[in-house]
Amino acid sequence: MKLSLNQNQKRKELIFTLDELKSNSEYFKNLLHTILKYQNLFEYNDWEMTCVYFTLFLNKARKDNYILPKNRKPPLNIDHQKTFLDLIERGDLDEKIILKLKDRPLKSLFSDLAFKGVSQSALNAMQFWYDHPNRIKLLYHIPDPHELFQYQVNGVRVVTLIIDPRKIDTYILKKRDALSFLLHDLEHADHFFSHPLKMIGQIGFYQSIQNYRKEKWIVDLLASDPTFQQAFYYIISDMNAYVVHMLKCLKSAFDKAQQLNSFYLWHNEIYNQNQELLECLSALNSQSSNAKTEEKLALFYEDLGREIEDKNKADQKYSSAGY
Asked: Considering 8, 143, 291, 303, which has the largest number of Cβ atoms within 10 A of its Cβ?
């Protein structure tokens, strides 16, 4: 049965109505059972599991010609590399879809094909993940802000697959169905990795948070001020932005909590008594702020993050060499 997209949502989000999810509850639960069976049978790695989940849910949801080759002919698979059809049983897909997938190596699946209704950003993330398997972490639960932060401080993004049959026929966090929840995570990953300079600035920001987020004064503030807690957790786990914008938001959160002195004390330690940087920080969210002062702050955090990113690149090179 073909499901229709909710016309009140952006097409790329692939959000279905609750009525559609509920009326096809057994349909989705059976599909989930099949995917989990294949996971054990074919011994998927994390990327392969996500690839199968993505494609089979999209296939069952759309039931039409939803895969569009960017190239008229698939590349010759002269090395007999693994294809998508090695991950499933043939009867799961329409023959027209099988013809588009059968000769395409997994490594080029998301660069050679477009998937109707799916953003290019989500496809970019899947391709990046294939090429850099250590940079995206697959989870089967929704992480809390602390867990998310621990991955992101090391330059790793998280993707969640919903495999609980009790949740497969409802909106996750009251916002998205399971498929669009996955796509949303992939888009966030792409936004992070597709802007390298912004990414290392974010990693540097996370590193500065890492050193101080467990100190008693901030733990007490988080426990006593729900508004600050909400802002702080959003900034350290869900915000995907230029580092100066993140600093502005953090400064504003401290200001609203009437803890601006703590904010400056914190950053005084980070900047090692660097008065010029403290003055640049003080100028944020005021008329004294300008491109020059913001650039100095950005460069500082980018330097903090570059060390972590250089280590990630070295680890990737080491792993690719087969050690």
From this structure: 143
User: CA triplet 108, 111, 113: central angle to 5 degrees?
Assistant: 95
Collect all residues with Cβ–Cβ distance below 8 Å to 283 and sequence separation of at least 6.
289, 290, 293
Q: Which residues contact 79 (CB under 8 A, 6 or more apart)?
A: 105
The pTM (predicted TM-score) of the whole model is 0.89
Give the angle 188-194-197 at the CA atoms, nearest 5°.
Answer: 110
C-alpha–C-alpha distance, residues 291 and 295, integer Å: 6
**Which DSSP letter does residue 105 get?**
B
pLDDT tens, position by position, for the chain (323 residues)? 444 444 344 444 555 778 888 988 999 999 999 999 999 999 999 999 999 999 999 887 766 678 888 766 666 655 668 999 999 998 888 888 888 888 889 998 999 899 988 999 999 999 999 999 999 999 999 999 999 999 999 999 999 999 999 999 999 998 899 999 999 999 999 999 999 999 999 999 999 998 788 888 889 999 999 999 999 999 999 999 999 999 999 999 999 999 988 888 888 888 887 899 999 999 999 999 999 999 999 999 999 999 888 887 777 664 554 54
How many whole angstroms separate alpha carbon 311 and alpha carbon 191? 21
Angle between helix 243-256 and helix 226-237 axes, rounded to 10 deg: 170
Which single residue is written with the structure tokens 């003080």?
282
